[in-house]
Amino acid sequence: MTETIALATLICAGLVVISVFTSLISFRVGAPLLLVFLCIGLIAGEDGIGGIAFENAPVAYFVGSISLAVILFDSGFGTRLKTFRVAAAPAILLATIGVVLTALLIAIPTRYLLDLSWLEALLLGAIVGSTDAAAVFFLLRVGGIHIRDRIRSVLEVESGSNDPMAIFLTVTLVEMAMAGGEGQQVLSWDFLNAFVTQMGLGIACGLGFSFLAVHAINRIRLEPSLYPIIILGFALSIFGATSLLGGSGFLAVYISGLVMGNMELTGSLTLRRFQEGLTWIAQITMFLMLGLLATPSAFPAIAWQAVVIGLLLMLVARPVAIWLCLMPFGFKSNETTFIAWVGLRGAVSVLMGILPIVGGLESGQTLFNAAFIIVLTSLLLQGWTVRPLAKWLGLIIPPDTGAVEKIELELPGNANHELVSYRIAEDCPVSKGERIPRWARPSLVVRNDRSMQMHEAGRPQPGDYVYIFVPPRLIPLLDRLFASELVLSDEDLDYFGEFSIVPDTPIGSISALYGFPVPEEEAGISTGDFLKKHLTKPLGRGDRMLLGDVELIIRDMDPETGELSIGLALEPSVPAAAKSPAVQRAQEFLIIARARLWHPLPGKRDKTDA
């Protein structure tokens, strides 16, 4: 018995260690990291060199569900309320209607390619209907892809919130398949009621329990290392309690993370660090276990059919669903194309593929194998092409700050300030004489391993460590003062235009100088207000408007005052042409027509729609 436990521990821990070390491959060659974990599981499985036989689908589903709950909680906890507000409407539509449309569209080829019933084909569509939050967050955050805030927000919120809908569809369709003829009709009538009940309870429990948890945690005093444990315990309790009440536990745990991450919560900074490691463990565990559960020797029987379904999912089903859902929100065709492409399938799809096996469906193994191959196809094709596609579509924007060395320290209780330590870079604004704002309170300087007070230290010097008390919401502004000088390439400089425009300058003056028309009633308003009026809300860095032969570009926007920094380009830069599937031309036409009807502006057109 002891030897068995020791061997199991060695195998599990060894696989985790190997997975972490092989992550270096991902960072070096740009491979999707989660694909590496999945492949290690396959290699260690019964058809691989490891020869580990693991066939316990119920255990895999249980462990995977807990891991997914941890990942969704972290996704919500790391989503700023500002990000959620920016993306709420389009992202929620994508996470609900978009998942349903994707499932319906992909069911059509599945029905004939895999010779399944319509219900089973729709079940596979539901299984692969959601995007993988872990894969999307890794590519966008860890991968360092700088894209416009609105697009990033939509992708992050959608990937974090669409799992509950896919899980609901999968569970319901499995129950319908198990019920048989008459039972299917009964369940079909109850479908809408079940949806409202599960999602309604998920939202209500997620909000209610998380508010109670925050107030409870803030009223007790614990050892600092215990706060992350009790917070995570509350999150999983919310997941379990909501599921027992008949609601969507996955939706509840995501909402609880969103609420807790945006409230004043004792131990939140410690939790963020704790969550980073725990979420990685959850992701590695899910992918390794699902890789072990798979039987690659059974893949060839449906390999080419599943690959074709995966390609149709990426190239037809999701793009059409995204196009229909985003049509009311004024997204440009290049933006819609990118959002459609960053729909990576991952562990959630494979995890949902276990349910037909657990439910005892005859086609259960076929559905699981098909889902696995579709996920591999998605990670291989989409995971490697996200950055090149973003660059080709002209959506990558230059970073707004250089590198900054910073350590955030949490104060006891619910203090309104955080203690932040910066190392002064040689070429940062502070080392060049820029004053630290009054709302920031420097308290200590460490120079040559010696600590001293600010008045004793004198002018800050490169290499100093400065400890500053600052309100959390203002830390990003302080980062800019301590960031090293940002060296932009000629291409980056061209991106923001050759000339700088004072935002208060009347747009009529600019139009008279460069020869483009503006309506007489708008000639007197400032250039900044003109852009705010005509560009799609919310505004962000890199937003641009083509006026005649020149282009106005938002270089930056003050997060506190909303004041714009505006550039002007005489020769509009590269992504002038819209590079998108033909199906999106209808959306492009509607956007242009709406702009002409609501804000007539001769000569105005958007660069990405040119």
Automatic annotation (TrEMBL):
The keyword Transport applies. It comes from the Bacteria. InterPro entries: Cation/H_exchanger_TM. It is a multi-pass membrane protein. It is found in: Cell membrane. Residues 17-392 form the Cation/H+ exchanger transmembrane domain. Keywords: Antiport, Ion transport, Membrane, Transmembrane, Transmembrane helix, Transport. The chain crosses the membrane at residues 6-27, 34-53, 59-77, 89-109, 121-140, 161-179, 191-214, 226-245, 278-296, 302-326, 338-361, 367-386. The keyword Nucleotidyltransferase does not apply. Gene3D superfamilies: 6.10.140.1330. Its main location: membrane. This is K+/H+ antiporter. The lineage of its organism: Bacteria, Pseudomonadati, Pseudomonadota, Alphaproteobacteria, Sneathiellales.
